[in-house]
Amino acid sequence: xxxxxxxxxxxxxxxxxxxxxxxxxxxxxxxxxxxxxxxxxxxxxxxxxxxxxxxxxxxxxxxxxxxxxxxxxxxxxxxxxxxxxxxxxxxxxxxxxxxxxxxxxxxxxxxxxxxxxxxxxxxxxxxxxxxxxxxxxxxxxxxxxxxxxxxxxxxxxxxxxxxxxxxxxxxxxxxxxxxxxxxxxxxxxxxxxxxxxxxxxxxxxxxxxxxxxxxxxxxxxxxxxxxxxxxxxxxxxxxxxxxxxxxxxxxxxxxxxxxxxxxxxxxxxxxxxxxxxxxxxxxxxxxxxxxxxxxxxxxxxxxxxxxxxxxxxxxxxxxxxxxxxxxxxxxxxxxxxxxxxxxxxxxxxxxx
Length: 352
Description:
The protein has helices at residues 6-15, 18-23, 69-77, 81-91, 104-128, 130-141, 146-151, 163-170, 175-180, 246-256, 265-273, 289-296, 310-325, 341-348; strands spanning 29-31, 34-37, 49-52, 57-60, 66-67, 155-157, 184-187, 190-193, 198-204, 210-217, 228-230, 259-262, 279-281, 301-304, 329-332. The protein is α+β, with helices and mostly antiparallel strands and 352 residues long. The strands form 4 sheets. The protein has a 5-stranded antiparallel β-sheet with strand order 1-2-3-4-5. A 4-stranded antiparallel β-sheet has the order 6-9-10-11, covered by helices on one side. The chain has a 4-stranded parallel β-sheet with strand order 13-12-14-15, sandwiched between helices.
């Protein structure tokens, strides 16, 4: 069990702007010395939730919930007290690893750093190479804008045997870490880039750490290959425990008090274009209990919008059962003509 000294806790509490932090989740209005808003921990119509910047505390006079910035973040994000301390310390560039009693965070950070390098490599390739121009044309034809490419950090894996491997090696990443994260493969004594000639979508966890990638073919000559290839299961990536775009969508999910659940990346991107920002994807049709529990941390209302074909309809039925089993409230958007959401928006426009 981590034992963090009181003076370190005090430093985190005093160093964090409690009004700024809580404003990310609650619309606050200043009244006198304090700020007031609707309590995020229970349903109410009259604001009874108070934040005191002088005392660095919050309190709801209706439900009784209260505490400091650490307590608030732990409660609102449904995380442990220690995890809340870690996140706030990180924002203050305060190193508290000596107090945590294990090296798991250091180990994971190594993986996140490598994946960040890989993402930067793919993004550079898309935006600064001749191959990238062809891929950008494909994305333009799919109506994906420059703003969306930047927002979703879309990149390109080049038509190369080992360019990424050589770049990683030159920047002192170990071959073991490359193999563990599935960005390279090994055959006999040689290393090769796993993804080649593919539009790359980074996959993040709910905290914004890059945990994996999904690569999509974009050339007609590659149509004999699988449309998508995903990162294998790794120390930081387990597909059934991740929802695509959740880190970007959390704030909107809280504000709208619902989440729109899609199957694929393109569906989420198309909905972002229409102004729908509380959207996530299960990255396939098989919704898992772990994904439902992730949703449950942020809302109890789930709008399922899977593909309109027979497979999508069957997946919707299974998702409804799973969501009800976890005591959440499902709703369903049914699309005509067997279309998926991306196709539907492309055919009928952003206001469809």
